Amino acid sequence: MDVFLYGVYALDIVDTIEFTNIELHELARTPFVVNLGILSALLVPKIAQGNVRSALIWLSLACLLVMAGPIFTAALLVSCGCVFLLARVLQKLSIRTDNSGLPLLLGWLVINSTYFPLFYATFPPVAGFLTIGEFFILWGPLFVFFRSIHYIHLSCKQRVDPYGENAFQHFLLYIIHFPSFWLGPYQRFHQFDSEVSTCKSRINRENNIAGLKRIAIGFVKLIIIFHVFNVPYFYKLDYYGPFADALFANGDAGPGHLWFMMIMFVLRMGLFISALSDGVIGMNLLIGIRVPENSNWPILAKDLRDFWRRWHIQAGVFLRDEVAIPLSNRRTRYVGYLCVFIYCGFFHVPSFVAIVCFPIIQVILFKATDLWGGFWETQENRGGKIARLGKSLYLHDSWLSAILGMGIVLIAVVVSWTFIFDRYHGGALILPRMFGLS
């Protein structure tokens, strides 16, 4: 009955089933970089371009029924209908008032007020320990909210017509397209819609090879995660689950162990996002849909600003377009940064440390990065002794400064991530021990 109501993911979130002492949901998650959306590669080449959109909608609905069950699928369809109707109403309001600001604000409030309570409602009867909000983070429907907000923004700005012919069909596929549904990445509506409308023209041998290559690369990355990170370290120490909750709750380990495992946690998370992005890009290429890159080796970032440009790139595009730009300008860009990280913390876990401590740390580090770069740029322009000294000591724009920068970024990420990935303690247990204070 649980599988019927909740789909295959009812099996994933039950942590009492084990195989060789490793939870079934861990084993099920790790080897695969593709999902049932791969079936679209068999379907789309056999149908006419005019039927592609309808076929992908029906395939996505079938995949959702199997994987998430009828309850989730029905709730998703109702939500899509409500968002689409809201977009229509808000567009009329923006036209009538000749002002898109108020309708857009109303849309934001409605969408985000819907998301927030999900963190305080649990799944009955399967895995009562798991809140719906945590499920959304874990399995990807979080991007439903991102895409919904983006579509409402376009409607309020009259950049999309929700009253147009087949408008709901275009919107629905944008939300539920299954190869990209779980864990994204986020893609702008017009970009995705245009790709779907012309995808048959890009189904060829070259893209098929490129798509299969990306899937293979993603698969290799997940094998590395499993055999290099999980089995010898995380599983051996009973740190299970994507968020390794037991690591953050460890009240006995010393600073060395915690720092090492947190660094491993950051590396594993980056590789995981990159692997999933490879799979999504590959699956979509097989049907002629180009998905933008979502990861660019963030571990090689030389400063924190560079790190966030490389990490989860498309989520960054959403936060820039929908949060930073509407709320700030050049003079108030740090206000924009603060709002971005508040919103980022809110969408991970809406707790005090996630929406206050995490954003403040990020903005302070952004300011420090700008001051450091600005100082050396000023000295270079002056061409004085300090500039020459900096070059001789490799303090700026050198291999040594790059290595030091990567180290500082890693430390900053490790510390700040405890506030958003420690879902139950907000870093209160692990951080004092990491710095030898308890």
What features would you highlight for this structure?
single chain; 438 residues; mainly alpha; two-stranded antiparallel sheet; 2 strands
Produce the secondary structure layout:
Blueprint: H1 2-6, H2 9-12, E1 18-19, E2 22-23, H3 24-29, H4 40-43, H5 52-97, H6 101-115, H7 132-139, H8 142-156, H9 167-176, H10 189-197, H11 205-235, H12 245-248, H13 255-285, H14 304-310, H15 313-327, H16 333-348, H17 352-382, H18 385-392, H19 399-421, H20 430-434
Characterize this entry briefly.
This protein is mainly alpha-helical and 438 residues long.
Question: How would you sum up this structure, described in words?
Answer:
The protein has 438 residues and is mainly α. It folds into 2 domains: 2-205, no CATH class; 207-434, no CATH class. The protein is built from 20 helices and 2 strands. The chain has a two-stranded antiparallel ribbon with strand order 1-2. A hairpin with a 2-residue loop joins strand 1 and strand 2. The protein is globular and about 65 Å long. The N and C termini lie far apart (47 Å). 38% of the residues are buried.
